[in-house]
Write a structure and sequence with these properties.
The structure holds two protein chains of two kinds. Chain A is built from 24 helices and 21 strands. Chain A is an alpha+beta fold. Chain A has two domains: 187 residues, Penicillin-binding protein 2a (Domain 2) (Alpha-Beta Complex), CATH 3.90.1310.10; 379 residues, Beta-lactamase (3-Layer(aba) Sandwich), CATH 3.40.710. In chain A, strands 2, 3, 4, 5, 10, 17 and 18 form a seven-stranded mixed β-sheet that branches. In chain A, helix 13 packs across helix 15, helix 13 crosses helix 16 and helix 15 crosses helix 18. The longest helix of chain A has 36 residues. The termini of chain A are far apart. The C terminus of chain A is likely disordered. Chain B has a two-stranded antiparallel ribbon. In chain B, helix 5 runs antiparallel to helix 6 and helix 5 runs parallel beside helix 8. Classes of the chains: A alpha+beta, B mainly alpha.
């Protein structure tokens, strides 16, 4: 039996007690409110109206981006800006009129400002104009009484000293988009910039730094009276890239106005010394803000300046793919390097005919001469014997058909076809003719210039799976601690050394044997001589009728129908150190258009070699031959 | 033993809906509407981003509340411990795995909103305590061993929440737990002894248990002035904004301090400041008056209820509600340290809103089932 009445009585008593306590505590709150709002109300009103204390965020200086020697690629410049606080502007039109006598403001700008006023909170300042001259600043300060709500502010703005030349790597910063607000109050600062492309985007958080705060007194219209307390932020970290700034500029000049790209890489460390895509764009213009016309011009240009062709341009590799076919054939054992095939200019397969680029044929070809003279029939034959899946597997080991992770956004995977892929993607079975076409790097295969340079590097660095990289280290400004990326010893990819020797001999013959396709573009100095492979990628189908009357020359075709010119090269030919890939879209033949550019780049990179070694011997040392114990 | 009519169990859904205390529902809606208005103002006269979402959440909460209100009270009695275990598990889950798998999240993503297990835990603890004490006799609660289990019910989640660290929520849990013990009839000397023991334990715990970084975090809670750019600055700004509002305030959307001075968190923790700046002491009094009316409703429902489960549940929930708004308002007026506690029904936030509406749902449920007889065996399914 339990005593509910007792329990209930206790409960009621205590509940009433608690209820009373709550009301007592609430009267305490009301008393406090009375004290703050009525007794002390006037004092707080004065505090509020005359001396408002407001906490401002201070934007930290964005970390610099420098090249491998610390030479600037992206820096900050002082920048006088005029800001407008919408809440403190009684009449926008009057302010505009008064201001335009000092700084002309276009109708478009007025529209943008009005739009921003609507979008943002009314007490947050909006940037009206940046990069003011000193006389303009002085006149605005002098007339400040007629310009309520306008504030001059010294900010920093990003500057890219190399402009277009470094744009493909460095990228650019620009204002924060509506969808990019993450709640970080820094992003709401007027004129704050974040990385939108390239290394600026990849390292954005590291470069951004930590905001400082400033406690300021402001008067009733929001103008600052004095600063009470200031806590400096921490400036962003500095990003050291692997790029050589002067080489980058050189390569950029070499490519000129062509729709082209080139990548230069250290074959042992994978450090990318230069990565250029042309035509380029001016990153400073993005930071400043593009006009509609400028933007239209950029996106309507058929040579697509905004596309980073070095990592995102997809091309059939053409004859530069022949080393892969040869290696796959050697590995399967279907040919020996000395086995000869006779080229009479074409090969029949079923009822299709596959033509060699040389109409009358090359005659008897072994592997070295077939690569040196780029005989197509030889490769039709060995590709057919080897099979697509083995070719694909070799291509993958050499870095194709995959994201290599150089660290730039937008890197493309490319495509290395297999039987399984075709069944899945196209729903039809693989045809032998497609294997034959793959033998000369045409058909479904797609690669990027970055993959091509990695391919050639892996061929000449002793068969190691070198990975490209663009960042050397991120140096923290506050504690000077740096995270040095240790260049790792790369794994072997398991290609027999004698097979690699055959490739090295063949690629040396391309440029140094008088019958080689790129003999004209050779480097005469024996110490600096290069090896490589040409590629000419057909972008249109040649009809039977045309073949009979004579294939049209590139010069006679429309620009967009001309062949792509490709060259992959390395130097010095006996102790390879640097690799380069050059792709000139619709540039004609690889030997006449891409090879000379590659030669000039390889000469320049070797000429600059001694400079590069100063103080960098550690990072650039040749990798030691891996000892056996690591494998055991 | 009085025989209580249990006819309310046989009511149809329509009759139950008729029984719901619609006056209380109306009052809750009015209080929440004050919040919508302030959120509209906090966004400088825009429904986005806060007001609209808050209204949607309130709508969801309202539906949840009515569902809970008309559900069978036996369900809540019978599954009180299960609900407790489920909430506690999710608390442990985010505590242990949140920082590994979900990037230091302390909430569970439900898609349309995120749910903080520590919020849900508050209601679950009250429910479990009411379940434990509902059939206890006066002799039971006098035995110390009888109190060990409910003590664990409060202490275990508290320990997890302190780890977060969320001292405010942990203390709130402790105080509401103590309130239920008190209402259940635990002897007064126990509270006195426990209080003395707690004070005595501070020194050894401080020196032996807490790590340096935990001490530092606790000190920042207790002495905000040590961090002048942090919460000390906020409180100073809050007092200026509130004080300058005067008796009648500066008018809707015209709270210059709130808008200009970067008053932090004006849509969550400091929303009362904004109300008091824009509507002055009259606005503040109105809101406190609404809260007082809600308290009176809760008190009346608890006293009127004929079973102990309902009484403890009702008072427990209302005590938690009271602590919630009291701590918040005292905090923005500079009476208590800043601990990060939203203003119930008014501040922006999904978890708090939903758990609060769940709590009110339970209160309404008690009201609907006020005359049900819940004997000692009711929790096991015997009516």
């Amino acid at each position: 039996m339990y005593r509910d009445n007792d329990r209930y009585r206790t409960f009621s008593r205590r509940a009433i007690f608690m209820f009373g306590s709550k009301f007592l505590l609430m009267s305490g709150l009301i008393g406090r409110m009375y004290y703050l709002q009525v007794i002390e109300g006037d004092r707080y009103k004065t505090l509020a109206d005359e001396n408002r204390i407001s906490l401002k965020l201070l934007a930290p200086p964005r970390g610099r981006i420098v090249d491998r020697f610390g030479r600037p690629l992206a820096v900050n410049q002082q920048n006088y800006r005029i800001l407008l606080v919408p809440e403190n502007v009684p009449d926008l039109q009057i302010t505009f009129t008064a201001l335009s006598s000092i700084v002309p403001i276009s109708e478009g700008e007025k529209k943008r400002i009005k739009r921003e006023i609507k979008r943002r909170r009314r007490f947050l300042p909006i940037v009206i104009r940046e990069n003011l001259t000193w006389p303009q600043v002085a006149r605005i300060e002098a007339n400040s009484s007629e310009l309520p709500g306008l504030v001059i502010d010294i900010g920093e703005s990003r500057f890219y000293p190399d402009g277009e030349a470094s744009a493909a790597v460095v990228g650019y910063v620009s204002g924060v988009g509506e969808k990019e607000f993450t709640g970080d109050p820094l992003l709401e600062l007027p004129g704050f910039r974040i990385g939108k492309a390239g290394m600026e985007k990849v390292h954005d958080l590291a470069l951004r730094g930590k905001s400082g705060t400033s406690q300021v007194e402001v008067n009733a219209v929001g103008r600052e009276i004095r600063e009470l307390e200031r806590a400096e932020g921490r400036s962003g970290n500095e990003a050291w890239l692997t790029i050589d700034k002067e080489l980058q500029n050189f390569v950029s000049r070499q490519l000129g106005e062509e729709s082209a790209s080139a990548v230069v890489m250290d074959v042992h460390t994978g450090e990318v010394l230069s990565l250029v895509s042309t035509p380029s764009f001016d990153p400073n213009a993005f930071n400043r803000g593009l006009s509609r016309a400028e933007w239209k011009k950029l996106i309507s240009n058929p040579r697509s300046p905004l596309n980073n062709k070095a990592i995102a341009g997809l091309y059939a590799p053409g004859s530069t793919f022949k080393m892969i076919v040869a290696l796959a054939a050697l590995e399967k054992g279907v040919v020996s390097p000395r086995r000869k095939f006779f080229c009479n200019g074409e090969m029949e397969l079923g009822n299709a005919t596959f033509h060699c680029w040389k109409k009358n044929g090359h005659g008897a070809m072994d592997m070295v001469s077939a690569i040196a003279q780029s005989c197509d029939v030889y490769f039709y034959e060995i590709a057919r014997k080897t099979g697509i899946d083995r070719i694909a597997s070799m291509a993958r080991r050499l870095g194709m058909g995959q994201i290599l992770g150089a660290g730039l956004p937008g890197e493309q995977r490319g495509l290395i076809p297999t039987r399984a892929w075709k069944r899945q993607a196209k729903g039809t079975s693989w045809q032998q003719g497609e294997t034959v076409l793959a033998g000369i790097g045409q058909g479904f295969i797609l690669t990027t210039p970055l993959q091509l340079v990695v391919m050639i590097s892996r061929l000449v660095n002793g068969g190691r799976a070198v990975q490209p990289s663009l960042t050397r280290q991120i140096i923290s400004q506050s504690d000077h601690a740096s995270q040095i990326r240790v260049s790792s010893e790369f794994e072997k990819i398991g290609i027999h050394p004698t097979h690699l020797d055959v490739m090295a001999r063949a690629m040396a013959a391309v440029t140094n044997s008088p019958t080689g396709t790129a003999y004209k573009a050779r480097i005469r100095d024996g110490n600096q001589a290069m090896g490589g492979k040409t590629g000419t990628v057909q972008v249109r189908r040649i009809s039977k009728a045309e073949r009979e009357t004579g294939v049209l020359k590139n010069e006679d075709l429309e620009w967009h129908e001309r062949d792509h010119a490709v060259f992959v090269g390395f130097a010095p030919v006996h102790t390879p150190r640097y690799a380069v890939s050059v792709v000139v879209e619709h540039g004609g033949s690889g030997s006449s258009s891409a090879a000379p550019i590659a030669r000039d780049i390889l000469l320049e990179v070797q000429r600059r070699d001694p400079t590069r070694n100063i103080g960098n011997s550690q990072a650039l040392r040749m990798p030691k031959i891996q000892s056996e114990r690591e494998e055991g | 033993m009085a025989i209580m009519p249990s006819r309310q169990l046989d009511l149809t859904l329509g009759q139950k809906l008729w029984q719901v205390n619609w006056g209380l529902v109306f009052l809750i809606t009015v209080t929440a509407s004050v919040g919508f208005g302030m959120l509209y103002s906090a966004a400088s006269g825009e429904f986005a981003p806060w007001a609209t979402r808050q209204m949607m959440r309130f709508g969801v909460g309202l539906v949840l509340m009515i569902i809970v209100a008309v559900s069978n009270i036996h369900f809540w009695l019978r599954y009180a411990y299960i609900i407790y275990i489920a909430s506690f598990s999710s608390l442990i889950f985010v505590e242990l795995f949140g920082s590994v798998g979900m990037g230091a999240q302390r909430w569970i993503d439900l898609g349309f909103m995120s749910l903080q297990p520590s919020e849900v835990m508050k209601s679950a603890v009250i429910l479990a305590l009411a379940r434990y004490f509902y059939a206890s006799r006066m002799e039971d609660v006098e035995r110390f061993t009888y109190l060990m289990f409910p003590l664990m019910l409060v202490a275990a989640p508290m320990a997890m929440i302190i780890r977060q660290p969320d001292l405010g929520t942990a203390l709130l849990l402790a105080v509401s737990g103590v309130a239920v013990f008190f209402l259940a009839g635990v002897r007064l000397w126990v509270f006195v002894a426990a209080g003395i023991a707690a004070i005595g334990a501070i020194v050894p715990v401080w020196h032996l248990v807490l790590l340096d970084y935990q001490k530092a975090r606790l000190l920042t809670y207790l002495r905000p002035e040590q961090d002048p750019l942090g919460s000390g600055y906020h409180v100073m700004q809050s007092k200026i904004a509130l004080g300058s509002g005067g008796i009648f305030g500066k008018g809707f959307l015209a709270g210059s301090q709130s808008h200009l001075s970067f008053l932090p968190e004006k849509h969550t923790d400091f929303i009362f400041t904004m109300l008091a700046e824009e509507f002055g002491m009259m606005g503040g009094l109105t809101l406190i008056g609404l809260y007082a009316l809600l308290l009176i409703y809760g008190f009346a429902i608890s006293l009127r209820c004929r079973h102990h489960f309902g009484r403890l549940l009702g008072m427990g929930i209302m005590t938690m509600f009271f602590l919630n708004f009291f701590v918040n308002v005292a905090m923005v007026m500079g009476l208590l340290p800043v601990v990060g506690m939203p203003l119930p029904l008014v501040s922006y936030g999904g978890s708090a809103m939903l758990t609060l509406m769940f709590g009110f749902g339970l209160l309404l449920n008690v009201y609907v089932h006020r005359d049900v007889y819940l004997g000692p065996g009711a929790a096991d399914g015997n009516v």
